Each structure stands twice: as C-alpha cells, then as structure tokens.
Amino acid sequence: MTRPKAKSKKPGGVDFKKIRRKIGKKLPPPKNATNTEIKSKAIVLPEQSVAADKAGLAVNKKGLTLKELLQQTSHHNAKVRRDALVGIKDLFNKFPTEMKLHKYAAIEKLRERIGDDDKVVRRTLYDLFKSVILPGCKEDNQELIISLLMSYIFNAMTHLAFDIRIMAFDFLDLVLKFYPPSFSSYAEKIFQNYEDILRKNQYFSQDRGKLKDVLAGLIHCLSLLPWNKGETNLVDKDDNGRILLHAFDEDMPLSSNGFSHIIKRLRDLAPVLINRFLEFTPSITAMASLEGKSFGCMLSILHGIDLIIRPFVHGADKESESPSLEGEPNGAMLDVTLSSMLLKKVFPLFPLSPAHHLSEKVCNVAQSDNAVSEKSLIQLLPFIPKFVSRGASYWTTRLLQAFTYLFRESKPGSLLKLACLSAIEDMLTPIQAMLSLEKSNPENLELQEYLMAWIAELPLLLIQLGDKHPACSEVALRLQLHIGQRALSNSSLACMYDDVQDKLQNFYCTCQGGGKKCSGPFVRLPRESQELSLCCLYYFSHLDFPILKSIACCCLSPELDPSVLFRIIEILHSAYREGHIKIADHLSIFITFVLRFKVSPEGSSGLKSVKLSQTFKSMTTLLCSYMAQIGGNYLVLNIIEKVIIDHILLKPPLDNSCSLLRMIVAVDSKPTRLSEQSIIILGNYLSEYLIDAAQSLPEHYDEQCKRSTQLTSVHYYLLPCFFLFDRCHKLLNLVLKTMRSAIAESSLWPISDDYTQHPSNWLVRVNAVASVLLLIDKDPKMRQILSSFKEGVDSIIQNVSSLQSSEKISMTIEEKHKIKCTYDRLKMLLR
C-alpha cells in the first residue's frame, strides 16, 4: 500500500512570529520600554559635616557626646550599653568639668542600670561609680546624690534575679564607703534587706564567695553604728576584719544617738547569723582541714554577731529615751534571749572546743599556703591573751597548745610570726601573775612549760631571721628584753631566761667549716636592734664564758661599727659590776679584745688602717679605765700577769703588744708588784719591742718637727715602757744589757741558717737602738733614771764604736758614714 499524501498547507497570514533564543543570552529591552537612567553630578556644600556640628563639644574617643552616650545606656543591645558606659568613663576622665556640670543628670540616668539584666553592664557601671563619679562628687550635695541612688539600690535588692540582688549590696557598700553619714537615714531598711538575703540559704550553698561578700558589707554597716565607732578598720571583700571579738574591749564609746529604732531590726538579724554559723558546722567538722572561704565566712559571722550584741552587753540601748514597743521585750529580756542563744547554740560549737577537735585543724591551716587562712589566724591571735588572763583551765591549755604549735611552724619573718610574738608579749603579765600566786596548780605548771617553750624558741628564731627580716628581729629582741626585765623579780622566769645563753652563741658568732669563726646576724642588724640585743645581756643572772667568747668574736669583726664595740664593752662591764660575770672571765675577755684585734685589714699586706688603729687605741684606753675601776689592783694584776706575759712571749704585733703593756701599767703600782720572773722576761722582750717601735721613725727624725705623726706614734708605743722603767729601775738595766749584748755580737735577733748577713740590716738596728736611747734621754724623768746606768749606756756607745772598726763586716763608705753619725748621736747622751 502506498502512503497517502499529506495535505499541503495553504499560504496565509501569521499572528506571532516565534523567535528562537539562546540559553543564557540577555533579552533585549522591549521596544516600548521607558528609559529610567538618571545622570547626576556631586554637589559640594561647605560646613555641612556631622563632625563639624560637634566642634567645641566634649566627646569621647568615638566622637559621641555625653547626651548621646546616656541615650545609648538604654539601648536594647547589652554590648551597646556596656560601650556607652565605657565611653562615659573616657569622656569624664578627659573632661572633668563635664562631669561637674552634668553629674546629677548623669547619675539620674545611670542609676537605671543598677538593675540591668547583663552582668558585664552592672560591673562596668560599678567601676564607673567607684573610680570616677563618686570620688569626683565628694564635695557636692551628698544628700541629693544618695537620694538619687538609694531608691534604685533598694529596688535591685528585691529583684527576682539573685545576681542582681547581690550586686545591689555591692553598690550599697560602695556608696557607704564614700558617704558614711548617709547610713543613719537608711539603716533600718538596709538591715531588713540584709536579713532577707541571708535567709536565702539555697543560693549560698554552692557559692561561699557570694556569702562572704554579703557578710563583708554587713560588717561594714554594723561598724558604722555609734557604739561600734572604735572600728578603725573597715572591712572590705578581701579581708575579714582585724578585730573579731570586740566584746572583750571594755572601754568603748556607747551611745545610741538616735539609733534606738534599729535595735529591733538588730534583734531579728542576730538569730539569722547564728543559724548561718550553725549551718557550717557539719561540713567543717567533716573536713580534714579548714577550707579558706568557709573559714572566712565563719569569722565574718562571728564578727557580725559581736557587733550586734555589743549594745545589749554594754547597755547602750538603755540610754535611749524612746519607750519600748508594746509587747516587745525590754533590754534586760533581750540580753537574756541573746545570751541563751549564744550559750546553747554557738559556744558549744566554737572552733576551739575539744569536742569537735578543731584546734588541730587551726594548726593545719598554718601549714597551708592559703593567704586567707593566715589572715584569719592573725585576726584571732590578739584575743588569746585575753582568754589567758581569765585564768587557767582545760580549754586554755588546749588553746596554748595550738598557739605554741602555730608559733613554731609559722614562717620566720611572716606576719603570722609577728602576730605570735605580739601575743606572747601580751601574755607575759597574766602568766607571770598566775605563776606567782598558785605555784602548785597543775594547770599553772602547764602554763610555765608553754612559756619556757616560747622563750627557748626566740634565739632559734633570731638565727633563722638573720639580717633578712630586720623588723621581725627587732620585735623578737624587744620581747626577749621584756622577758629579761621581768626575770629580775621572778626566779622561775630567770632560770628560763638564763637557759637560752647556749642557743644565743650563733647569733653573735658562727663557726664554719675548718673551725673558722665568722660574725653572726647581730653584726648586720640595724643599730636599734643591736642595742636591744645588748640590753638583753644585762639581764642574765650570770653570763657564762662560752657566750662571752662568742660576743668577743663578734667584737673583732671588721664589719662592726666602733660605737657598737664600745657599747658592748660598757654593757659587759655593767654586768660585771652587778655580779653577773666572774672577774676572771671578765678580764680574760678584755685581754682577748686587745690580743686578737687586727689593726691591719686582711689583704692589706701588713699596712695599717688609720681608722682601725684609732679604734684600737680608743678601745685600749677604755679597757684600761674599766680595769682600774674594778678595785683591788693587786688582785687584778695577779690574775692577768701570767696570762699577759705568756702571750708576750709569742711576740704579737707591735700595737697588740703595746696594749698588753698598757694593761699591766693600768693595774701595777710604784714600786712594781710584778714577779721577778716577769721582770726578767720583760727585760729580754722590751729591747726588741723598743727597737721595733723606733724603726717606724724616719731617718734624722730629730731634724724634723717634733710633733710629726711618726714621732707621736713612737711616743705612744714608748709610754708604757717609761712607766715600767719608772716603777722598776732594774727593768731598764736589763733592757740596756740586752741592747749592749746585741750590738756586741753584731746581731739583735737570732739568725736562721739560710739568712745572709748584710751590713744594712745591722745598720738599721743599730740606728734604732740609738733612736730609743735618744728618745729616753729626751724625757726629763727618764733621763734622770737613765743617768743611774751611765756605765751601761757607755758600754753601748763603746760597742757601736767597735762596730765601726770591725773587720768581720765589710762596709761601703756610705755605710761607714752612717755608723759614724750614729756614734756621734750617741755621744750626746747624758750631756
């Protein structure tokens, strides 16, 4: 079959022509489209900018005025409100006059943010008031400022949000710190709000820090009451108060001064605080050690209770002229009610009660690094003496046991150690009174043991402190001095005080490795502390030789100031006159002073220090003066003669030898009381001593000024010898014989095997002999004595003459000339 042919289309008209469009190609605009394009040019109008409109106005960093910033504090966005407050602070700091002009308007607007829902906004507002607004408004109308703020603060205290309520108390505390007189106008309402917030136990159970802040504010308010004006330390959030048990203060200004209307409010507040204290007891007793925040809250509660019951205990409310409310208990009934609550609820749970074993926990707090706990203990310690003053008992013993442990374990130099020292000083009077009245009481014997432990701890503490904590060392030394002063009238206390001598040795002088002695902490302490320490020595009933040796070692330290050295000698001599030092020990220490004192500092190659030399001479003069004051010079000479002669044989340095000789002269008499053996030893020694002294003179000294320094120094060395020669002519004769023999043998000192003789050595010594004889001859009295031994002097001159022609020693022409000059000088003797 064939397919049928399609019908052919007839040509005709087309209504719409279909146009094929490519995908993605933009359609052309319709033919009937309206052109909406607008062409314009910039028009510049001068003086029309927003910044120019604020020229001359006070603006912050963002260019906003105070009016704009205050408007933004009501913005719905918390960040905008916070930025506005920061901007106001910036503006007031840059333009203080702006705050003075608009302070009331600013406070009226800013007070709305006290109850803000955002915590950051509230804290920023608090900082703004604390650092800028309130300090800048101190001299303005305070009543108006307070009235603007207090209504909003009280409203925030009743807010449903607990954080806002807590923050409201912070604002209240801030206002009262800047304007304390405003408290009296709002006292009743303030205490009512504190009572309401403290009843909300469920809010504080998890956050003790908030409770502590609220209690700090309450104590601040209670301290503003007229009968609590003795408070000198207003409590802040980081301190629980320095004084906790004010009921022990008997002399307080007690006057209601129109505050009688709040007595009822205080009566309602006291049970709330007591119940708060009771709520801590189960958790505290279950803890191994006291937790800082809980312990701080307990202390703050006790502080608040004390401030509340003060008017009832002292009867301040009885001075009020306003009658009691009908049906309300009078002051006496109120006193009984509060006393009953305290006796039945608080006192049995007091932390020092043995039933709960909290005294050990107080000791454990001392070992922790919690600064809050240490502050709390410092606040408690001042009241321990008041407990002790009421008499010894079982709980007093437990209290002192904890205190003693705390005193031993606290860090040297800490505030806690200082508080312990202060408490011990306050306890001295009551303990001493109890020990003198009832010596047989077992509890008093325990008090004596604790006192003994404290006294024994003081020397160890002084050594531990060293020179790093001078303030604490001064307090410890002052306490030791007061104990020593009281020991004069108490035999048992005197025994305790004397027992610390051994422990004090290292305080004055320490012994290092190899037996080397070094000065102790005493040398480096301030002058006032050194004086306290020296005064303590006077009150020992007897000073043993070991402690005297330690003091002597300290005196020989080059670090010690000369004035302190002289003060030590004065104190020791005063103690001797009171019978506290044996005469043999006293004189032995004096000899030690002059024998071991070093005029030449270490590392100076034997060169003398002018300052040390002058100090040594002054010390020697003082010692000789005290030795002469002892009385019984013959007895003193018998004690020191052998000791000094034995030390002289060891040939100490020239200055020390001179001081030893001056000591003998101070107690000897004319004629001399020295033994024959001592005279012989001195005769052999003094020749060498005099030659050493003469060698310090320059050559041809007689041609120089007689008042020269060298000549004065030589006279100082020769003077004790002149006294000895005057009292014993035989001694001078022995000295002349020794010098004659020395020149005759061409040797003045034994010569070692490896020593090579040289003419210059003998020349120096021969010249020194001549100088000694000439110096003796210049003194009128000594010249008269020397004339009695003219034969001995002539022998010396003859020996010098023989030395000129000696063939054993080869001399140069210059050396022969010097010998001749020396011979010529000697020929002038006794002419």
From TrEMBL:
Nucleus recorded as keyword: yes
Keywords: Nucleus
Domain called TEX10-like TPR repeats: residue spans: 452-808
Broad class of the protein's primary localization: nucleus
Family classification: Belongs to the IPI1/TEX10 family.
Pfam families noted in UniProt: Ipi1_N, TPR_TEX10
Organism of this sequence: Stylosanthes scabra
This protein's name: Pre-rRNA-processing protein Ipi1 N-terminal domain-containing protein
Subcellular location: Nucleus, Nucleolus; Nucleus, Nucleoplasm
Record domain Pre-rRNA-processing protein Ipi1 N-terminal: where: 144-205
Keyword Transmembrane helix annotated: no
InterPro entries the UniProt entry points to: ARM-like, ARM-type_fold, Ipi1_N, TPR_TEX10
Domain of life: Eukaryota
